Amino acid sequence: MPAAEQASRIWSTETAAPAEGLSYWVDAICEAFLExxxxxxxxxxxRGRLAQHDFGPVDLNFVTADAQQVWRTRRxxxxxxxxxxxxxxMRRGRxxxxxxxxxxxxxxxxCALVDSRQPYGFDFPADFDCLSVQxxxxxxxxxxxxxxxxxxxxxxxASDWGATLCSLAANLRPEAVEGMALPRDIVAGQLGxxxxxxxxxxxxxxxxxxxALLDRLRAGLRxxxxxxxxxxxxxAAQHGLSKRYLHALFAAAGSSFGAELVEQRLVRAAALLADxxxxxxxxxxxxxxxxxxxxxxxxxxxxxxxxxxxxxxxxLRLHG
Length: 320
What we know:
- By secondary structure, this protein is of the alpha+beta class.
- The chain contains 13 helices and eleven strands.
- 35% of the residues are buried.
């Protein structure tokens, strides 16, 4: 399979009967993005293709389709559990974006931001190619305090940083995504930073907020390290984050969920072993209280981290 086709998911009207192409397309965009309505003057033989790529905390969606009108109703926006923003860039053709009383026409190379929590309308007057970057609202707010202020605006025309943002987006092509030299989380972070700069916001504020989130996650690990089945999804849900963004936060700090959890458990175990109040506890009990399901696994990890078996560590700390 060519690199350009290595998407995580692909929807194509080629799999539908000619008379059912538009109906298939509406179902596809609702599944890939969120609830929307669509219509086209070309109902018979409508053609469309959408390829979705995982890209760290965001998703890249490459869309090629016939002329159409797409809109999201107020009712759909109010009833949705998904909270995403979409960074749109036209590659071929034109697009009119309407949201929050603003309207803008995008030409090839132009970018605009759309808020899924508010109704909007898209008008593609001819066949087109488009990039749609699906951005979790929580992740974007670590870069932009109020991203809704940038919706339905031509970001390329906003500032020199907006033009840089559009240039970066233009380099996000299917064939480039698979062989990228840098981790996807880092490149996605560049999108967030450039959105902040294009909107005139202080990027360091976003960095401080991300550090605060990381500190909260580490505190959450300390509070729950005794849970042997603790996983990234549970910790992310506790803090109102997506699992993908949780992994991105740890990766940006040069760590991972698993490494942080084991480290916290070993630090707690060392503290218990050095505390005379817990001298009567067996090694198996210490392991269990620190979230290790198997005492042998605990012993191996502890020795690798502290240089001594748990029993020897306790003896040295309690009796010298």
